[in-house]
């Protein structure tokens, strides 16, 4: 996929599988685009045929209908496939989304006229190592978190940056976040907000006990390795997905991925700060209750 503007001819439209209105809305978006000469396939975000076609490069663009969780899952699929994503918000928060539900019929013609820009966002690659064996590798949109399991006791996390010892955290966990993830779990844990165009890893400890309690922004291109030392279970969680069990001595290595997320944007680049102000004033996920 080229970085210059293009007029999409083949579009995948995917919907959050547990939102009743999402598939209905996806069908309406598909009908709207087909009437304008675009080849469209639509269905659940977990539709295996659509996912296979995205991975095979058969689409110019993926439109995701749902909330921020939908965008995360779309990012896992589209980042490695180099397929840009356009988000239509049907959820509560929608921090990553570009269009609100009631706006798409007015804004999609701009997409077909090439009146947009591509926003590039860093992804991480996180790997689980046991000795010299890599047990798994994941593409990360928001964060990779090494943390305690069900036991309410902190874990010891030996942390290295670019192969050099940084510190040993005694904490509930350590978050390695992208700039995108700086407004997610890392923010809730007290970390700073990074502009989305940066390519730095953010380290934030979760409930550190007599340990380094300040977030650290690593230099661009740095990697971080976190080794677990604990007599009780620890886990790795990638973007809030099902946790992966870690054994004592396992290490999780995170570094900038070779893949980059591409989001379709119609707003000017200052949108990030406007949205940030609005979301900081009140969290919409609680239903606008005061």
List keywords for this structure.
single chain, 290 residues, alpha+beta, Rossmann fold, Tumour Suppressor Smad4, six-stranded antiparallel beta sheet, 6 helices, elongated
- Poorly predicted residue ranges: none
How far from one another are the termini?
A: 45 Å
The strand line-up of the biggest sheet is 7-6-17-14-9-10
Q: Tell me what portion of residues adopts beta-strand conformation.
A: 35-45%
CATH fold label of the largest domain: Tumour Suppressor Smad4
**Integer average pLDDT:** 92
Which structural category do the helix and sheet elements fall into? Answer: alpha+beta
Radius of gyration: 20 Å
Mass-distribution shape: elongated
Q: Give a short account of the largest sheet.
A: 6 strands, antiparallel
Write the CATH architecture name of the largest domain: Sandwich
Q: Would you identify the CATH H-level superfamily of the largest domain?
A: Probable inorganic polyphosphate/atp-NAD kinase, domain 2
When the domains are counted, the total is: 2
Helix content: 10-25%
Number of H/I helices: 6
CATH class of the largest domain: Mainly Beta
What's the SSE pattern? EHEHEHEEHEEEEEEHEEEEEEH
Q: How many distinct beta strands?
A: 17
């Amino acid at each position: 996929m080229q970085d210059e503007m293009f007029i999409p001819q083949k579009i995948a439209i995917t919907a959050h599988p547990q939102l009743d209105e999402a598939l209905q809305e996806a069908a309406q978006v598909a009908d709207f685009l087909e009437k304008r000469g675009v080849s469209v396939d639509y269905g659940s975000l977990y539709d295996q045929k659509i996912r296979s076609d995205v991975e095979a490069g058969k689409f110019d663009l993926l439109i995701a209908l749902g909330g921020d969780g939908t965008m995360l899952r779309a990012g896992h699929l589209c980042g490695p496939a180099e397929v840009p994503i356009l988000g239509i918000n049907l959820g509560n928060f929608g921090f990553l989304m570009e269009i609100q539900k009631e706006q798409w019929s007015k804004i999609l013609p701009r997409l077909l006229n090439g009146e947009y820009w591509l926003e590039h966002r860093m992804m991480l690659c996180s790997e689980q190592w046991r000795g010299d064996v890599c047990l798994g590798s994941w593409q990360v949109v928001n964060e990779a978190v090494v943390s305690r399991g069900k036991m309410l006791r902190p874990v010891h996390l030996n942390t290295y940056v670019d192969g050099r010892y940084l510190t040993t955290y005694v904490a509930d966990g350590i978050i390695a976040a992208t700039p995108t993830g700086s407004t997610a779990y890392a923010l809730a844990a007290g970390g700073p907000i990074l502009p989305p165009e940066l390519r730095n890893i953010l380290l934030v400890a979760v409930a550190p006990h007599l340990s380094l309690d300040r977030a650290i922004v690593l230099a661009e291109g740095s990697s971080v390795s976190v080794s677990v030392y604990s007599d009780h279970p620890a886990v790795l969680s990638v973007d809030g997905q099902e946790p992966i069990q870690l054994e004592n001595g396992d290490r999780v290595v995170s570094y900038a991925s070779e893949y980059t997320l591409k989001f379709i944007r119609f707003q000017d680049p200052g949108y990030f700060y406007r949205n940030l102000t609005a979301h900081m004033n009140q969290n919409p996920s609680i239903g606008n209750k005061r």
